[in-house]
Amino acid sequence: MTEFQFEYSRQNIIVRVLIFALTAFLVLFISTFLISKYIGIWTSIILTIGVPILVFYFNKKRIKANGQAILASDRVTFELVDKKIIYDFKDIKSYKIQHDHGVALSLRLKDRTKLRLLANDNFCNPELFSKFCKVFERTIDTYKSNNELSYIREKSIFEKQWYFVLLIFLTIAAIVGLIYALASDKAKSGSIFISIGALISLWTGYFTTKTKRKKSG
Prior knowledge:
Layout: E1 2-9, H1 11-39, H2 41-58, H3 60-63, E2 64-71, E3 75-79, E4 84-88, E5 92-99, E6 102-109, E7 114-120, H4 127-147, E8 152-153, H5 161-183, H6 191-216
Parallel strand pairs: 5-8
Antiparallel strand pairs: 1-2, 2-3, 3-4, 5-6, 6-7
Helix pairs in contact: 1-2, 5-6
């Protein structure tokens, strides 16, 4: 039996903070037309963008939480901030581990119960949770092999063949767009460079997952 300490992101708090930040943005954006005449347009824009950012900044500590996992050869116990959960491996139907801006573990049980734990690198250090996931996967696969069970490891989106094909297509489209922007003197438009930045992020997630799979495999 092995104990793992880790940090994780409280997803219910993330949703609440996101809703509050989005509401603040919409209210300030709509109010811009009314208050800009009194405080100036640039001050209004700064408030519209800055307030939602401050909402996330001041709630960052609430999002991060400390947890513990106790891993045995046939079960795993999670001790979280608000609950303690015990899962026997024989009751697990499938699991999925995904690496993208942190690491996420998803479990599906035979009774349709679901668990998703996320360690987002924007709010906490995902390294300890990633270490646990690596040992968890190795342990549960050993249990599956020894007991001839049929549960499966679900592939993350980055491991699926269609995702790689999509990345190739988007990369070709981005290259064509960049060539067009440079040829037509529209390189300063910015939109093409934003698209390239997003594409780099997608490729990073793909190669990060591939590297993690090689190390665990």
